[in-house]
Every structure is written in C-alpha cells, then in structure tokens.
Amino acid sequence: EVQLVESGGGLVQSGGSLRLTCAASGFAVSSVAMHWQRQSPGKGLQWVSNISSGGTSTSYVDSVKGRFTVSRDNAKNTVYLQMNSLEIEDTAVYYCATVVEGRNYRGQGTQVTVSS
User: Fold this and answer.
1) pLDDT-above-70 percentage for the chain
2) Distance between CA 9 and CA 2 in Å, rounded?
3) Secondary structure class of 31 (helix, strand, coil)
4) Average of pLDDT values for 30-53?
5) 3-state DSSP call for residue 52?
6) How confident is the model over 75-102, as pLDDT tens digits?
7) Could you report the per-residue pLDDT of 8-35, keeping only the tens digit for each?
8) Residue 36 near residue 109 (C-beta atoms within 8 A)
C-alpha cells in the first residue's frame, strides 16, 4: 500500500526556516518523481517543487526559487523540502505527492504558518 506521510510543519516567524519531511512507503521514492504542493486558505492547490526519479533534476515555482530546496534520501525512502527565508505568503498546508503505476497519491499534509 502506497503511503505518504508529511511532517515538520509548524509556526515560524517571517524570515525563519523549516524542513518538511515526506516519509514514503509501498514504493521506492528513487523510482518516481516526487512533488511538493501547497494550499493556502481560500486558494487552490499549487505545485511548489519536484525532484526527478533520478534525483538529478529539481524544479520550483518562481515564488520559492532561491529559498526552497527539495532533496531525497533513498536509503530512508524520504523526501525533504528545506524552506528558508519564509514569508507570510508561504502559509499553507504542504503536501507531498506522486504517481505510482498510473495512480495519483498525496499525503495528509502538514500545516506551515508564517507570522510577521
């Protein structure tokens, strides 16, 4: 059974940092592209970042470039999102997501709240 469990969210002041963790089970994170998405109150789901199955390619939405870094630990079957210089606009529920054998999966999310 494919499962994605996010953790690491919390309340942080503007300019602070958090590292989100996505623990995967039921498949190997090294075999698929892994994505981070977020949803702010009253807004739709937004793609934030992804890391390729080979781990050599990463992409980011423009608003987080230079501040967020996605990485993967194949031995731990875990994906991370390091978030630095957080802004109030980064407040959202963050999800990790992937496609395994043609099916979409997303975790339950972790809340990130950035205060002024």
Assistant:
1) 100
2) 22
3) helix
4) 96
5) coil
6) 999 999 999 999 999 999 999 999 999 9
7) 999 999 999 999 999 999 999 999 999 9
8) no
- How many other C-beta atoms can be found within 10 angstroms of the C-beta atom of residue 80? 20
For tokens 């996605």, the residue is 70
- Mind giving me the DSSP string for 84-113? -S--GGG-EEEEEEEEETTEEEE---EEEE
Give me the torsion for CA of 105, 29, 54, 72, rounded to 10°: 110
Hunting for tokens 């079957």 — which residue is that?
77
Q: Rounded distance, CA 68 to CA 26, Å?
A: 27
The pairing of strands 10-13 and 110-115 is parallel
Q: Please answer whether residues 109 and 40 qualify as being in contact, where contact means their C-beta atoms are separated by less than 8 angstroms.
A: no
